[in-house]
């Protein structure tokens, strides 16, 4: 396997593994937010705000994984 092939494989593994955590985190976050809305519908604005903030922070981790994968591929 060539150096380029190893780098492509490493980049694929980095983004693949780096996307698992945020995917699970966002899934759990939305699940719990829907559960909270079912229990307390009048708290919807606060729940929605916190859910969107949490999703943004969780998605940032996936972006870090993408940056690492791009660095592996092109450097």
Write a brief structural summary.
Helix content is 91%, strand content 0%.
Describe the structure.
The chain has 75 residues and is mostly helical. It has a single domain, classed as F1F0 ATP synthase subunit C (F1FO ATP Synthase, Up-down Bundle), CATH 1.20.20. Helices cover 91% and strands 0% of the residues. The chain is elongated. The model has no long low-confidence stretch (mean pLDDT 92).
Write the layout of secondary structure elements.
Layout lengths: L2 H37 L4 H31 L1
Helix pairs in contact: 1-2
| Residue-averaged pLDDT | 92
CATH topology: F1FO ATP Synthase
| Cα shape | elongated
Number of domains: 1
What is the percent of helical residues?
over 70%
| Tally of alpha and pi helices | 2
CATH architectural label: Up-down Bundle
- Beta percentage is under 5%
In the CATH hierarchy, what is the class?
A: Mainly Alpha
Radius of gyration: 17 Å
> How many β-strand runs?
0
Quote the distance from N terminus to C terminus: 18 Å
Structural class: mainly alpha
Low-confidence segments? none
Helix and strand pattern = HH
What about the largest sheet? Answer: none
CATH superfamily: F1F0 ATP synthase subunit C
């Amino acid at each position: 396997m060539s150096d380029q092939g190893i780098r492509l494989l490493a980049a694929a593994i980095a983004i693949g593994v780096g996307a698992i955590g945020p995917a699970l985190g966002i899934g759990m976050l939305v699940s719990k937010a829907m559960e909270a809305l079912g229990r307390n519908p009048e708290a919807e604005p606060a729940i929605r705000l916190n859910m969107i903030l949490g999703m943004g922070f969780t998605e940032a981790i996936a972006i870090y994984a993408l940056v690492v994968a791009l660095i592996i591929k092109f450097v």
